[in-house]
Amino acid sequence: MTSPTPAVRWRRRGLTSVALLAVLGGAVVAPAALAAPDPEVPTGSLVTGDTPWHYLDDGSDPSPAPAALRDWTLPAYDDSAWKTAPGSFGAKSGALAPVGPHTPKTLLNHYLDGSAAPTVPTYFFRTTFELEAGVADQVAALQSTVTFDDALIVWINGEEVARYVDGRITDTTNVEYAGDSNGDPLTSTFSAEGDLLRDGTNTIAVSLFQDRASSSDIYFDMSSLTLVKASDPGTPVVAPPTRVILTPTEKPEVSQSFSWLAGDASHTVGQVEIGLATGGATRTVDAYDAGVVNGNPNKHFSVTVTDLAPATAYRYRVGLPGSWSDWYEFRTADPKASDFQFIYYGDAQIGLDTTWPSVVKQAEAQAPRSIGSVHAGDLINTSSNENEWVNWFKGMKDSAVRTNVMAAPGNHEYSGDKLLTAWKAAFEYPHNNPSTSSIGELANLAKGDSEVAQQYRAFFDHWSSFAAETAYYTDYQGVRFITLNATRDTTFLTPAGLPSCTGAECPSSQIGTLWTRFQAAWLDLLLQNSPSKWNVVTFHQPVFSASAGRDEPVLRAEWLPVFQRNDIDLVLMGHDHTYARGYVNTDATETPGLTTGPVYVVSNSGAKHYDLETPEKNVWTNNGATQVLRGQGVTTYQVIDVSKNQLVYRSYLAEKQPDATTDLPVGAVYDTFTVTKSDAGEKWVTEAGVTPPVTEEPEPEKPATVGLGASSVAAGGTLAVSGSGFAAGAELALELRSDPVSLGTVTVATDGTFSRTVTIPAGTPAGTHTLAVILPDGTEVTASLTVTAAAGGGAVVPDESDSGGATDGDLATTGADSMPFVIGAIVLLAAGLGLFALRRRRATAVVETTEAG
User: Fold this and answer.
1) Given CA atoms 167, 172, 174, 176 in this order, what sign does their dihedral have?
2) Rounded CA gap, 125 and 153, in Å?
3) Counted domains in the chain
4) DSSP code per residue over 21-69
5) How many CB atoms lie within 10 A of CB 45?
6) Which of 396, 737, 770, 784 is 20 to 30 A from 656, comparing alpha carbons?
7) Where would I find the Calcineurin-like phosphoesterase domain in this sequence (predicted)?
């Protein structure tokens, strides 16, 4: 998403001229009388608990043919025959009783026949509020809070302003079952532009849907509706941004991405101001407009700041001049560091205003060195429900502004938002997703002019662009974090204008499998070429399901072989609202509590819980895997400590249900294991109390050295030369300099040493010389040597014409009478000559299967 920054545009509504000045031919027209001041915009709620509503609860259509479908939402509609009562409204099994935590004030007719199922499919509500003349033009926006069960649409003056849990709403009829069975009623806050308001009477219309004919309850309440006054021209409304969040780039040591929600609908531009945390100058970078979603008129903004310094603390704020956020701090990745923590969360989804903030608070307290968090999808329950996003971000508000959030989309991110518009507006992730250039040989399916190839090409091109920010990776201090999109939603995955294709080979007959395979090809290359020692993948639906009635054979067929073949370290998943952790059976060893290969984990970080699968239908054991631990009724978070040679995983109990399968108290470590990996690639996974086998690390490379039997020698005399740290079998040349004189050759022994006695040519001039040991690749190791005058004669005077004699010298035992004088000369030997640490990557055989579309 890289759209240009829009021009500054300030709202001009709500202004009234107080005088008119005209200049005609130098004459000034006298000002007219001052206009009356504008009436005040109401500051209180226009809808309260005493507001009367007209409502229809008998199952009839308020706009039967030939009337238009939504005529009943218009201000002119006659609702005088409807019932009238104040809110809230509801029923529990046909009676006026609590619906979750809410007790309705007015009883709705629950059943079509008044006594038993089927239930009334849809209820209709209308009310009005008044605005004085001149008020509507001063309103920038309106905001309202609604609580409902099960689905809802709201109109203002006939214009739709909000809809929730609308996945089953067809918009072809007024009366239908729709929504999901979500348990307790949901609460959401929506906003709408002030342009749709009018002076005088304004009409609110609401459709409330039952999710099924056998539903046990129904509920609706609009608890508030307030107005936001427009600002003066040229002056932004002072409303700080919300939902400020850091997300990683592909290179987090030198860049950082930021996203936020504007504080007001009049904020049409966004910026980030950034500088060193220690103070000094700052720079301002323009953000791009990421759009508006879910009926909220406030814009989302995102920006990636580059040219940062590694391992450096920065301060920043987001917004625009006149309406900034607070200052926050973050630190870029340190490529030289290996020790840090990160947090792993399962589904938040339910309990976003209660359980979720508590879980995050506990996790942050346990992970003071955290660089960020990975989220295994289903951050919310309904993506089109703006209030759920408000609550999710509230829970993350302290950690998201200073550490990176790496989230995977789950199936509930598609709920009410099949194109993931809310996801893409809220987050800015690396655009290094799978594409035709990164899926290897799979891309060959899209080559050619056949109708099959054309359809493959259409799918691949669509996924290469549209699926950006739902699958991505980042490398952070020795860990490659990979995020996958495990949801196979055909609306999201099918491109517009898909070429026609007939036959079993057409990709349109296997969209879900192909999407999974598309990511598998990309993932395989990412792992094969990973520069990081550790590799961690996060996604939503698990390859090994844990809760009753669930299984993901397509994911298991396409992704499990890639994980096993590349010996990935951690596979972190969600979706099942239970806890499970284990391994593939082929990774077991003869030692209890000691395994090799990937570790697979399913976790749950919200208030929604499912039952575990029965032992007979256990997906793990029925597909060649072992569950080390499984549990239900538990809400957990996980802290992973990363160091050079270990990943230490700890899962903590954040909440427990009455049916929890553990006696451990809240706050206790629920599960733990350690992954140990040597520099040579040997890896072990150990349970608590188990020590990994001692891994023989390669000996460090030893520097090659040369030793001389004496520090000086007379010309014509002999000298013992020795060395160590050389490659066995290498043939070395010995040479005396200044003018090069060969002293012969020597072959290195199997232990990397050599020893040789050489004769210094009699004609060697007195003075300081260099003895060089020359390796086959030309690398040299040298030592300094003093040559004195030949015995019984004067010093040899250097002469340019004296080339000196050359001799291999005689093999003899050195007769030097001084202690050996070792002069170290260190060199790292070239490839093929030194000792090397051979990294061995373990490969596990896995039977690969392919499921037909």
Assistant:
1) negative
2) 11
3) 3
4) --EETTEEPPPPPPPPPPPPPP-S-SS-TT-EEEEE-SS--SS-TTS-T
5) 18
6) 396
7) 374-579
Residue after which a domain boundary falls, among 175, 204, 229: 229
Domain boundary pick from 659, 687, 715: 687
Residues ≥6 apart with Cβ < 8 Å to 36: none
What phi and psi, each to the nearest 5 degrees, are found at residue 808? -75, -15
Q: What b/e readout covers 282-309, taking b as 16+ CB neighbours within 10 angstroms?
A: eeebebbbbebbbbbbbbbbbbbbeebe
Q: What is the pLDDT of residues 15-66, one digit of tens each?
A: 333 333 333 344 444 444 556 677 899 999 999 988 999 999 999 999 998 9
Residues facing 674 on adjacent strands = 648, 686
Greatest distance between any 2 Cα atoms in the chain: 137
At residue 104, what is the residue type?
Answer: P
- Answer yes or no: are the C-beta atoms of 217 and 103 closer than 8 Å: no
Q: Is residue 234 assigned to a domain?
A: no
- SS in 3 state form for 701-714? CCCCEEEECCCEEE
Residue 550 is assigned to a structural domain of this protein: yes
545 and 420 part of one domain: yes
Distance (Å, whole) CA 465 – CA 692: 45
Taking a C-beta distance cutoff of 8 angstroms, is the pair 711, 821 a contact? yes
Q: Which domain holds residue 78?
A: 52-229
List, in sequence order, the alpha helices (H) in 267-346.
Answer: none
Residue 748 lies in a domain: yes
Say whether both 115 and 169 belong to one domain: yes
pLDDT digits (tens, 9 = 90+) for 205-255: 999 999 999 999 999 999 999 998 887 766 778 889 999 999 999 999 999
Q: Which two tokens stand for residue 424?
A: 């893409």
pTM for the complete prediction? 0.67
Rama region for 377: left / alpha / beta (φ>0; ψ in -120 to 50; rest):
left
Tell which phi-psi region holds residue 372, choosing left (phi > 0), alpha (psi between -120 and 50) or beta. Answer: left
Q: Reply yes or no: is the peptide bond before residue 430 cis, omega within 30 of 0.
A: no
Q: Is residue 849 a part of any domain in this protein?
A: no
